[in-house]
């Protein structure tokens, strides 16, 4: 049953009492265009808040005699259950006002119609106070981003989008809109629109993503690159009349009605002029891009800053890609940045393929992982930036204060939340989604699942937050900006304040445990506990990848064949058990987790922004929830390391060891080593004290790096020996021997099942 009814006056009234313009107040296309049998199109703007490179708009202008551009503020996106912070809501309101000014400047015949009854109903049934549109595009574009044009440009509605669109269809208009990635609420709303309007509405794919194909991955990279190079969709208004219906609804009225008061600082302005200015500025410094994206202090000005404009569609990925290619000579910065634009498309393709990324673990084996350990105290410490780990705390405070965080810090804080604090991934993902100005649901939730290890790929990274301090903020400039209580602490103690000698604490006036918290958990203990629990599930997770539907969700670059290979090599039913993961068992010792609050089943509620279904997820309050390959490999779909949600944050010159603890049960090198070990009855070395950036082997008692020969040794020797650490089979210590011999404290001979992981740093 539809959730709207129609009043005697013809106005569609939503279940919540808000009203949409009645059909009687909307002119028919014949009253707008002079053609004998004019065709009229409503272009429903949602995420694509621009005029150029907009396929639906270009089609409407080309095929229609009259076009009515429309944006609908959906009241369900506001209120206590919405996930968007005020800063992102304000950015959207500014973008809609900017779009209105762009339409007002279009040199086309315009018919303006006032809907007084609609204005009266809106005033009576909604919190909005109708205000006259005022201002001038040229004068207000920078001075007042919420100002709308004196001459109406965009028709703005308020209410259930289905009801608003239905009123136009009743008067003979057809509806065109851009297909866009969406999660559950947006999908259900779009399904209602299709059901109600039938053939009168069309969702046109114009973003380069593949839809309605069983397996889009085989030629996906080639298709994406072809789309990026293709001509943009540019409307020609010469033969088209534009209709603008003055409803009395303006972005400023909605902003005031809901008390939108952004508390964040340094938030970008949501206008098209600001977007094009930022793009032009970035082009001038793109050559320095690769070196300025990892350290958060450098990334603040080193990344493009275009991600919020791309997310809301003020710019298209293709517009940015072509602008950069046309103006920047080939260089590493250009190649790296444009590869990140492909990553943006790749992760939105994942959401198109499987909208449940926001709801469920992509690999069902990991569904509910960490939920039995939910601890509100740890979650709140992480949200407030009071974990006792300065890099994590600075990142979380930066996110809360500015709505921005570069990718490396996003990934590090997510890894810490899922692997060290061992909390449910979606609690952290929702927190990011609430605070990020650029939150793209396709990137945020897929990246959270990837960082939390819920895919089942054979390598999982655990970032070491202490190492991130040493590598990316050694002087503490960024940390002390957001964690000022550590400003007087000597730099050498910023990675581990709790180890600052008491006399130094007294001298600098920073008492760890009082002025700054002690670590809420022990990193090493929790990391090993995670590996123990995670590793026990990995064979079953690998088996799941043999199922085509799971392989498709995971979107491996090699398609089903690559996923099947992982299952064959690492699954519990693998043909060769020698490559099966077997992680060192570590006593967990953690206290039982606090039970999670019941998940809401409010599936019909939206979560984030008015009319922006790219951010439409099921609402979740705190603690509740409603039910990679290289970019240089053309055969692979690259994995984004994205400081902006758009362009990446990973310095390709860095080794994997720079990230922290990477345990691989099937990465390329690990598979080679395991294969040789399996054939020759030997093992790679797990050496915790070795150079973290190199993989070390012991050949005939001589330590050498992989791929070279040590004097007197041969590669893939059958006499590798343990070189330090703890024996993975018995968890007992043994000492380093110059000859690589086992210590008398451990007489058991290791087997290939004992170690099938490679440690690449701490």
List keywords for this structure.
single chain; 762 residues; alpha/beta; Rossmann fold; DNA Cyclobutane Dipyrimidine Photolyase, subunit A, domain 3; 4 domains; seven-stranded parallel beta sheet; three-stranded antiparallel beta sheet; 25 helices; 14 strands
- Percent range of helical residues: 25-40%
| CATH architecture term of the largest domain | Orthogonal Bundle
Number of distinct beta strands:
14
Q: Which consecutive residue ranges, at least 5 long each, have pLDDT under 50? A: 1-19, 121-126, 129-141, 574-659, 664-762
CATH topology of the largest domain: DNA Cyclobutane Dipyrimidine Photolyase, subunit A, domain 3
Rounded to an integer in angstroms, the radius of gyration calculated over CA atoms is 28 Å
What is the overall number of helices?
Answer: 25
User: N-to-C terminal Cα separation, in Å?
Assistant: 57 Å
State the name of the first-level CATH class of the largest domain: Mainly Alpha
- Using the alpha-carbon principal axes, give the shape: globular
User: Biggest sheet: strands, sense, closure?
Assistant: 7 strands, parallel
In total, the number of domains comes to: 4
User: Can you say what the CATH homologous superfamily of the largest domain is?
Assistant: DNA Cyclobutane Dipyrimidine Photolyase, subunit A, domain 3
What structural category do the secondary elements indicate?
A: alpha/beta
Average pLDDT for all residues: 74
């Amino acid at each position: 049953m539809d959730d709207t009814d129609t009043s005697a006056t013809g106005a569609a009234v939503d279940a919540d009492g808000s009203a949409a313009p009645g059909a009687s107040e909307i002119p028919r296309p014949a009253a707008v265009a002079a053609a004998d049998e004019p065709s009229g199109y409503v272009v429903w703007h949602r995420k694509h808040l621009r005029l150029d490179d907009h396929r639906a708009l270009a089609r409407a202008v080309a095929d229609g005699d009259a076009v009515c551009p429309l944006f609908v503020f959906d009241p369900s996106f506001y209120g206590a259950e919405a996930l968007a912070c005020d800063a992102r809501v304000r950015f959207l309101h500014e973008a809609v006002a900017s779009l209105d000014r762009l339409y007002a400047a279009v040199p086309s015949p315009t018919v303006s119609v006032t809907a007084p009854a609609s204005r009266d109903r809106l005033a009576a049934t909604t919190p909005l106070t109708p205000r006259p549109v005022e201002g001038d595009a040229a004068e207000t574009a920078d001075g007042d981003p919420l100002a709308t044009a004196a001459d109406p440009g965009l028709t703005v509605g308020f209410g259930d989008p289905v009801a608003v669109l239905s009123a136009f269809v009743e008067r003979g208009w057809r509806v065109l809109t851009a297909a866009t990635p969406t999660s559950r609420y947006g999908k259900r709303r779009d399904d209602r629109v299709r059901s109600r309007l039938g053939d009168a509405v069309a969702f046109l794919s114009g973003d380069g993503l593949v839809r309605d194909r069983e397996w889009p991955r085989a030629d996906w990279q080639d298709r994406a690159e072809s789309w990026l190079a293709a001509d943009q969709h540019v409307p020609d208004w010469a033969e088209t009349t534009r209709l603008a219906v003055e409803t009395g609804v303006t972005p400023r009225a909605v902003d005031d009605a809901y008390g939108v008061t952004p508390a964040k600082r340094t938030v970008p302005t949501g206008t098209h002029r600001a977007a094009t200015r930022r793009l032009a500025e970035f082009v001038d410094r793109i050559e320095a891009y690769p070196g300025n994206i990892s350290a958060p202090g450098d990334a603040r000005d080193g990344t493009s800053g275009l991600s919020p404009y791309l997310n809301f569609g003020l710019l298209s990925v293709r517009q940015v890609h072509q602008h950069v290619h046309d103006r920047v000579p080939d260089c590493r910065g250009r190649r790296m940045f444009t590869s990140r634009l492909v990553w943006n498309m790749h992760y939105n393709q994942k959401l198109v393929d499987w909208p449940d990324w926001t709801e469920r673990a992509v690999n069902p084996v990991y569904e509910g992982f960490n939920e039995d350990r939910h601890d509100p105290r740890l979650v709140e410490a992480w949200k407030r930036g009071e974990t006792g780990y300065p890099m994590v705390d600075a990142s979380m405070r930066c996110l809360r204060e500015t709505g921005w965080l570069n990718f490396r810090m996003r990934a590090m804080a997510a890894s810490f939340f899922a692997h060290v604090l061992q909390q449910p991934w979606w609690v952290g993902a929702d927190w990011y989604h609430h605070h990020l100005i650029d939150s793209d649901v396709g990137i945020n939730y897929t990246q959270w699942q990837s960082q939390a290890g819920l895919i089942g790929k054979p390598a999982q990274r655990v970032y070491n937050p202490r190492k991130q301090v040493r590598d990316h903020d050694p002087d503490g400039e960024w940390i002390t900006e957001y964690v000022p209580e550590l400003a007087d602490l000597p730099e050498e103690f910023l990675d581990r304040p709790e180890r600052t000698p008491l006399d130094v604490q007294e001298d600098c006036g920073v008492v760890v445990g009082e002025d700054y918290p002690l670590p809420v958990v022990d990193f090493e203990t929790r990391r090993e506990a995670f590996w123990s629990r995670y590793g026990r599930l990995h064979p079953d997770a690998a088996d799941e990848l043999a199922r085509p539907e799971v392989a498709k969700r995971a979107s491996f670059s090699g398609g089903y064949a690559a996923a099947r290979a992982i299952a064959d090599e690492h699954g519990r039913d693998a043909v060769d058990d020698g490559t099966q993961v077997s992680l060192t068992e570590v006593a967990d010792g953690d206290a039982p987790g606090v039970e999670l609050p019941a998940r809401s089943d409010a599936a019909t509620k939206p979560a984030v922004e008015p009319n922006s279904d790219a951010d439409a997820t099921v609402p979740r309050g705190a603690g509740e929830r409603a039910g990679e390959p290289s970019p240089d490999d053309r055969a692979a779909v690259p994995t984004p390391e994205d400081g902006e949600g758009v362009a990446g944050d990973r310095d390709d010159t860095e080794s994997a060891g720079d990230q922290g603890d990477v345990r691989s049960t099937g990465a390329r090198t690990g598979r080679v080593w395991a294969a040789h070990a399996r054939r020759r009855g030997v093992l790679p070395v797990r050496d915790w004290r070795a150079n973290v950036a190199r993989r070390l082997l012991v050949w005939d008692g001589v330590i050498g790096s992989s791929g070279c020969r040590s004097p007197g040794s041969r590669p893939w020797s059958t006499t590798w020996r343990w070189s330090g650490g703890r024996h993975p089979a018995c968890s007992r210590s043994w000492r380093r021997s110059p000859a690589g011999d086992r210590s008398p404290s451990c007489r058991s001979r290791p087997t290939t099942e004992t170690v099938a992981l490679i440690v690449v740093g701490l």
